[in-house]
Write a structure and sequence with these properties.
- The chain is α+β, with helices and mostly antiparallel strands.
- It is built from 7 helices and 15 strands.
- It has helices at residues 11-60, 69-81, 222-229, 250-256, 293-302, 317-324, 345-348, and strands spanning 85-86, 91-92, 105-108, 114-115, 123-134, 153-166, 175-177, 196-200, 211-213, 260-261, 333-334, 354-359, 369-375, 387-394, 415-419.
- A hairpin with a 5-residue loop joins β3 and β4.
- α1 runs antiparallel to α2 (69-81).
């Protein structure tokens, strides 16, 4: 007769399994602590990094080489960083320890040496270490004697470095503007936004504020001037300019922007495209001779040609020339304006009269900065009339119409802030 044998674990083995299970539970708790607490640390790190990025970008925008640049940069950086939240955006990160603008926003030269000289500052670094960030489940690891992980608080550090670099935008035109008075500082170099400035003058007097042709590649070639009017780029801050003098062959390209063409020259290719409006601003049509940019925007919206502002019209090049006293006899065709026109400013117009102009402290000199300006008048055939542009402002100022995209990566655009580290 067979005997049924029921096997039972000894009491000691059952106790060992319970102890093992308990230890595994503690290990699992530790792993959960690592996952959850480090995930929270990662989120806070990301939020602090966003704050530092904001700080560096805002501060870098102020590094224009002026004597108060560092003070402005410190204030702008701190204000931008303190707008960011932390702890899943639940509180201002500054509430965890406000950024010290005097010690945590630092500056470096173009050679990346530490500096406190505002005129030499080219890079800005924002760095903040938040101490005492509380952990919860990680503390359980302390029960296993792991003092490295089982701590109640941790530090979180974030850092960002930014500078100013050329934006992706239209290329400069081959002109150069000097400060209105010798030594007038940026960003506006003595000019008031809205001021009309004599760009090209028949007398070539060299008076303060005189602006003349200046090949951006340093040459004196007329064909280079035309190429640069057609969009050839390459000039950057520090480039030495050329002095080609008055270039009559540039009149065609200049006047295309006003919708004024010679025979068989129409706006079918990109170099011959007009602006959205060809409306001419002179003493005859704008007696105040200042602050025409706002009206220019309105005229652009209605696709005005050189005279008429709102409707399709049959005015001729001669009408434009007679009104303003320009010799446009070699130009034969004026494209129509108005929202109801066909083949005119509405169909072909683009941004062609708000232009980037290099600033030089001595003519021709080298490029020190960029101004944003509005073409006001066409060029006559014999270059017998002074030509003016309206000063809109420094092209690197936030919101400038010359920084068409505001994205870094260009070779000749106005300077915009960009993260480099």
């Amino acid at each position: 007769m067979a005997t049924n044998r029921i096997s039972h674990l000894p009491q000691r083995q059952r106790g060992a399994m319970l102890l093992t299970a308990a230890m595994v539970m503690f290990l699992l708790l530790g792993f959960i602590g690592v996952a959850l607490d480090f995930a929270r640390l990662f989120v806070v790190k990301s939020e602090l990094q966003t704050a530092m990025d904001s700080c560096a970008l805002s501060a870098a925008q102020e590094l224009d080489g002026q004597t108060d640049a560092i003070v402005r940069a410190q204030n702008a950086g701190k204000n931008a960083s303190d707008l960011n939240g932390v702890g899943f955006q639940s509180t201002l990160w500054g509430g965890l320890g406000l950024l010290d603008k005097n010690t945590e926003i630092t500056f470096r030269t173009s050679g990346y040496s530490t500096t406190t000289i505002a005129t030499a500052a080219r890079y800005v670094q924002c760095q903040h270490t938040h101490t005492g960030f509380k952990t919860y489940l990680l503390q359980a690891l302390g029960a296993y004697g792991n003092s490295a992980l089982g701590v109640s608080t941790r530090n979180v550090t974030a850092s960002a470095v930014a500078t100013r670099a050329s934006a992706q935008t239209a290329c400069p035109i081959p002109l150069a503007v000097r400060p209105k008075t010798a030594g007038a500082p940026g960003p506006n170099y003595g000019y008031a936004p809205g001021e009309w400035v004599t760009m090209l003058t028949k007398s070539d007097s060299g008076a303060n504020g005189y602006i003349g042709w200046a090949n951006l590649d340093g040459s004196s070639s007329a064909s280079e001037t035309v190429a640069e009017m057609n969009g050839k780029c390459g000039v950057t801050v520090g480039t030495t300019l050329g002095t080609p003098g008055v270039q009559s062959t540039v009149a065609d390209n200049w006047n295309w922007r006003f919708g004024i063409y010679k025979n068989n020259q129409y706006p079918y290719d990109q170099y011959k495209q007009p602006d959205r409006t060809g409306y001419i601003y002179s003493a005859a049509t704008w007696p105040s001779q200042s602050n025409a940019y706002g009206d220019y925007q309105s005229k652009s919206a209605s696709y005005a040609n050189c005279i008429q502002s709102t409707t399709v019209n049959n005015q001729s090049v001669k009408d434009c020339g007679d009104l303003h006293g320009y010799d446009l006899n070699s130009f034969k065709d004026l494209i129509p304006g108005g929202a109801g026109s066909t083949g005119g400013h509405k169909d072909y117009g683009t941004n062609r009269r708000v232009v980037l102009v290099p600033v030089t402290n001595s003519y021709p000199g080298s490029v020190a900065d960029y101004a944003c300006m509005l073409l006001l008048q066409p060029l006559d055939v014999g270059m017998n009339r002074d030509v003016q542009l309206e000063f809109i402002g420094n092209a690197s100022v936030p919101g400038s119409p010359c920084a068409t995209s505001g994205l870094p990566g260009g070779v000749a655009g106005p300077l915009v802030p960009v993260l480099v580290r």
